[in-house]
Amino acid sequence: MNPNPLVLGGTTEATALCLALSEAGLRGTISFAGRVSRPVRQPLPQRVGGFGGVEGLLRYLKDHHISHVIDATHPFAAEMSANAVLACAEADVPLIALSRAPWCAGPGDKWTHVPDIAGAVAALDRPASRVMLAVGRMHLAEFAPNLQHFYLLRLIDAPDAALPFPSCQIVQDRGPFTTSGDLALMQAHRIELVVSKNSGGAGAFAKLAAARQLGLPVIMIDRPAQPARRAAQTPREVLDWLNHSGTARGV
Ligand code: NAP
């Protein structure tokens, strides 16, 4: 029987997977949380919005006769990933994560690791500095305790509400970014410190390469823990799993 996979998306990897599925003549649906106003166009049908927790996802899997789930969400989308593990186990639908390796510090990098957003906020309790705050739109309000800094924010969409920062600049842009572009951006704003999630992947690494070239310190937010699940690194591996071995559960 032809598989009918659900791809949990919102990443470059999910888009690449949808292209691979479509080119292989497979059907499927990609799901977005609905965080950005204009999601990247997809070669597969898409749905937008939360499912309504584990129960809602379970219902969706059953109602739409989903045969497989591919969790290609961002490594920091821990709630969606946890819900997928629980709903798939309950529905007996095979699940695989399409994940990207975390970034590792190399020669010349000056990274300080913090475990989460709260850790980054605490690490910013220091004298005023010019900070590139690359944590996405959803977590900006949490940085309100440190209003002494200038913040450079690069966002896909403008914030829905006024930001708490007295000194900040918003640059609206969507990756992938280049090292030369990020070097120019950081120099133009005289950035002294970068705060980044450890997202992994190629498209968002440019700011870290630029920070290395400029000798800038980086506060690196480590990834949240994810539940044990089967994982693939490439769309090809996911296609093989769908075609040959996607009927057994496990990690
Ligand atoms: P999250 O905290 O794990 O998810 C919160 C809730 O949003 C989930 O419980 C679910 O609602 C809904 N949701 C998340 N991803 C969804 C998807 N692909 N399809 C349908 N509903 C989804 O996730 P998040 O950190 O807010 O990220 C939201 C989306 O943005 C994800 O798709 C992720 O891939 C993408 N993204 C996140 C980051 C990041 O840094 N977190 C960066 C880039 C892209 P219900 O419980 O109602 O189902």
Unreliable runs, pLDDT <50, ≥5 residues? none
CATH topological fold name of the largest domain: Rossmann fold
Order of helices and strands: EHEEHEHEEHEEEHEHEEH
Number of strands: 12
- In the CATH scheme, the class of the largest domain would be Alpha Beta
User: Which ligands does the model contain, each kind named once?
Assistant: NADP nicotinamide-adenine-dinucleotide phosphate
What is the number of helices?
A: 7
What distance separates the N and C termini?
24 Å
Give an account of the 3D structure.
- By secondary structure, the chain is of the alpha/beta class.
- It has helices at residues 12-23, 53-63, 78-91, 117-123, 179-188, 206-214, 235-245; strands at residues 5-8, 29-32, 46-48, 68-71, 95-98, 110-114, 130-134, 150-155, 168-172, 193-197, 217-221, 231-232.
- α6 (206-214) links the parallel β10 and β11.
- α1 packs across α7, α2 packs across α3 (78-91) and α5 (179-188) crosses α6.
- The longest helix is centred in the middle third of the chain and has 14 residues, at 78-91.
- The model has no long low-confidence stretch (mean pLDDT 94).
Quick structural overview:
The chain is α/β, with parallel strands linked by helices. It has helices at 12-23, 53-63, 78-91, 117-123, 179-188, 206-214, 235-245; strands spanning 5-8, 29-32, 46-48, 68-71, 95-98, 110-114, 130-134, 150-155, 168-172, 193-197, 217-221, 231-232. A six-stranded parallel sheet has the order 3-2-1-4-5-12, sandwiched between helices. A six-stranded parallel sheet has the order 6-11-10-7-8-9.
